[in-house]
Amino acid sequence: MKIYIVITTELLPRFFKLLEQGFIVTTQAGCSIKNLLCKQLGIEEAYLDKRIQTLFLDGKPVDKVEKAYLHNDATLALSGAMPGLVGATLRKGGAFAAMRNTISYSDEASVNANGKARVTLKLFNMVLKELGPVFLKSGIWIDRHNFSDFISHNLEDLKPACESVDLNDQKIDVAALAEMNWDDTELFLKVTTEASS
Question: For the residues of 10-64, what is the DSSP string, one character each?
Answer without folding.
Answer: GGGGGGHHHHHH-EEEEEETT-BHHIIIIIIS---HHHHHHT--EEEETTEE-S-
